[in-house]
Design goal:
Strand content: under 5%
Shape: elongated
Number of strands: 2
Order of helices and strands: HHHHEEHHHHHH
Largest sheet: 2 strands, antiparallel
Strand order of the largest sheet: 1-2
Length: 234
């Protein structure tokens, strides 16, 4: 595929920390805007991973996510490869991009989640963290998104409960309820859910060590990952 400056911008290195989610956003946005038109073929896996500056395993996860959400199709054989589908979901007239209210909610979420993480790092009791670990295991075992999401909501509210702040619990409950209105509008491939839940597991470990600095950095990475996925698939 011959590239102009706009198309070339799609195939530049991805930032570290949220490489998986940003890759989904980068390619999903390119599909939504028509930079990668319907039927176009992506570069070979090794070449694309090199251009994006990511590992091939991370690239495979991102491509699988976009295949499962209906944006890409993978074909085998001599003329195979990874192609933009003829009618990607983001090309439909019903697609609704994130607006100012959605971004305001995501900003509010940053404040609530990072604040809860700081206080949980200082105040969480072993029983609080045990409950969070059980929710992580529940999310690991389920394949139904509705069940996963209920445990996910309970995890984040549990984080606020571990902060010993009733107002934070109330704010977290509001944020998670409003966030569900956005999250239910996108596909939920296992790769996305497993990646998010791995971050949940790592967060609990950091809270057990009372490593608030790294815990806050991780929850910010977790939230940023959601933002990339939403931006790429809406």
């Amino acid at each position: 595929m011959e590239r102009d400056a706009v198309l070339e911008s799609v195939f530049t290195p991805v930032h570290p920390a949220t490489t998986f989610e940003e890759t989904v956003e980068r390619l999903g946005t390119a599909i939504r805007t028509g930079i990668l038109p319907a039927g176009s073929r992506l570069p070979a896996e090794r070449m694309l991973a090199d251009e994006l500056g990511i590992s091939r395993s991370t690239l495979r996860q991102a491509l699988t996510t976009l295949v499962q959400s209906g944006h890409l199709i993978a074909l085998r054989g001599r003329s195979g490869g990874t192609f933009v589908t003829e009618r990607p979901p983001l090309a439909e007239t019903s697609a609704m991009p994130l607006g100012a209210d959605a971004w305001a909610l995501l900003d509010y979420r940053v404040a609530i989640e990072t604040g809860a993480t700081v206080l949980a790092g200082e105040r969480a009791k072993p029983l609080d963290l045990d409950r969070l670990d059980r929710l992580v295991e529940r999310m690991t075992e389920v394949v139904d998104f509705d069940i996963y999401r209920r445990a996910d909501i309970r995890f984040h509210i549990g984080l606020a409960e571990a902060a010993r702040s009733p107002r934070l619990v109330s704010a977290m409950t509001e944020v998670q309820g409003r966030l569900s209105e956005l999250i239910t509008r996108i596909a939920h491939p296992p790769e996305v859910l497993n990646h998010a839940n791995d971050q949940h597991r790592r967060l609990v470990r950091l809270l057990r060590r009372q490593d608030a600095v790294r815990a806050v950095a991780l929850i910010r990475e977790h939230i940023e990952g959601t933002e990339h996925i939403l931006a790429g698939l809406l």
